[in-house]
Amino acid sequence: MIDFFNDYANLCFEKFGDRVKHWITFNNPWSIAVEGYEVGQHAPGLKLKGIGAYRAAHNIIKAHATAWHTYDRLWRSRQKGMVGISITSEWGEPVDITSQKDIEAAERYIQFNLGWFANPIFNGDYPQVMKDCIGRKSSLEGLSSSRLPAFTPLEKHFIKGTSDFFGLGHFTTRYITHKNYHYSKGPSYHTDRDLVELVDPQWPDPGSEWLYAVPWGFRRILNFIKSRYGNPRIYVTENGVSEKWQCTELCDKWRIQYMNNYVNEILKDPLINHMEMVTEIVVPTVCTLCILLSAILLMFLLRRQ
Q1: DSSP string covering 131-151
Q2: Given the DSSP bridges, would you call strands 173-178 and 195-198 parallel, antiparallel or unpaired?
């Protein structure tokens, strides 16, 4: 499948690369892996609990890296484009910020979502907490090796750095608390995490059972990406909300409020980002205007003479 995907990606680069300059190899790989191979809600509808999602994700990551290298080797110098991946993840906040167990559970929540794909691509391997949790439970289940596949040293080197930007899909947030799941319940991606997801009943409810408006979580996940993955260029590729009210005309007041609140979280840039904006935008613009005004003044003086 990795080779098939690479052939397809290469064909796309060849046919459309003169016009397309931003490529996303996979959108929301978490959904492909978990909903396609763990719980069976999406195609291909398999329920290989505790195994299928990890194997699918392993191949997705290697397929992504292979396509990135193909573009880098064959097309980048001619087409001047960028290739990345878009990872969808919610933010996890500890229920009790004074509880070390809850803090660690929230970290696991993020790593089993965002870090699962981002860490190999940006840092070279799966998050250590994933390897520890799944490896420990695999051992208790009597398995000789972890249910989480391992990258070889050569694969780690091949995968690391294979994204020209960080694509992010983000919609909502969960409160997270620690909970031990006994291995006797059987292998499962969800029980491997040893946590429970909760919502605040005060959060605005847009009607979708999984989506609550929590704007502050957006900023926290953006800061997490900035600090953990070397301050990459971030493209928010997915964000939005459902509308629960039934009406015959356009009823977007709730959606407008949601988008306004979430975009405002992006705009709360630290001073350094404002300085980058000044350096990259304001200074060149002012210089250009000065040159233009000087040219106009010179033309005026020459005409008077």
Answers
A1: HHHHHHHHHHTT-SS-SS---
A2: antiparallel
**pLDDT band at 296, cuts 50/70/90?**
confident
d(CA 111, CA 67): 24
Q: What per-residue confidence (pLDDT) applies to 271?
A: 38
Measured in degrees and rounded to the nearest 5, phi and psi for residue 171 equal -130, -40
8 Å CB contact between 182 and 166:
no
Is the domain of 7 the same as that of 50?
A: yes
For residue 170, being part of any structural domain is answered with yes
**Partners of 247 in the β-ladder:** none
Q: How many domains does the chain have?
A: 2
Residue 208 maps to which CATH number? 3.20.20.80
CB of 9 within 8 A of CB of 71?
yes
* Confidence band of 85 (pLDDT split at 50, 70, 90): very high
